[in-house]
Design brief:
The protein contains three helices and four strands. With 167 residues, it is of the alpha+beta class. The protein has a single domain, classed as SecB-like (Bacterial Protein-export protein SecB, Roll). It has a four-stranded antiparallel β-sheet, with helices on one face. Helix 2 packs across helix 3. The mean pLDDT is 87.
Length: 167
């Protein structure tokens, strides 16, 4: 290998990194208030799933990303089951990551890395709770991130117009 090629491969190894240091269940709850009737039901429940992402600094280049998943099953307005999961990951950045890219890494790529594990936890806990395993469909974290930005901008605009000054 030439010195130039070696320097290039070292440079690639020294480039920006975004890695998972640790993953963990921060909070987990399963409630089945519809038992035992849920097990006698003839039709499948309506299931609503909500997902949210939270990010907190956890050191100089470390960040805690928490993926919150709330799934609720109901039939005719009656709650049948509730699953709530806060699945966390400790992530580390190294190298030169531009600030405009950091937010996308934390709000899109980090949750994308955590999601398969959180999905498995929910499938396992619902199965072990006597229910069919709840297999959550893949999440579009880019859309979730864009929706969050749009909400923040709308709230900022509303606060800007709601300062008591005439419109």
């Amino acid at each position: 290998m030439t010195d130039e090629a070696a320097a290039g491969s070292e440079g690639a190894a020294q480039g920006p990194k975004f890695e998972v240091i640790h993953q963990y269940i921060k909070d987990l709850s399963l409630e089945v208030p519809g038992a035992p009737q849920i097990f006698q039901a003839k039709s499948a429940p309506e299931v609503a799933v909500n997902v949210d992402v939270g990010v907190q600094p956890a050191g100089d280049n470390d960040y805690e990303i928490v993926l919150r998943v709330d799934a609720r099953g109901q039939s005719g307005g009656d709650p049948l089951f509730i699953v709530e999961l806060a699945y966390g990951g400790l992530f580390r950045t190294s190298g030169d990551i531009a600030q405009e890219h950091l937010q996308g890494l934390l709000m899109i790529e980090g949750p994308r890395m955590l999601f398969p594990f959180a999905r498995n936890v929910i499938a396992t806990v619902t199965r072990d709770g006597g229910l069919p395993p709840l297999m959550i469909s893949p999440i579009d974290f880019v859309k979730l991130f864009r929706d969050r930005i749009a909400r923040s901008q709308a709230e900022a605009a509303a606060q800007g117009n709601g300062d008591g000054a005439p419109a």
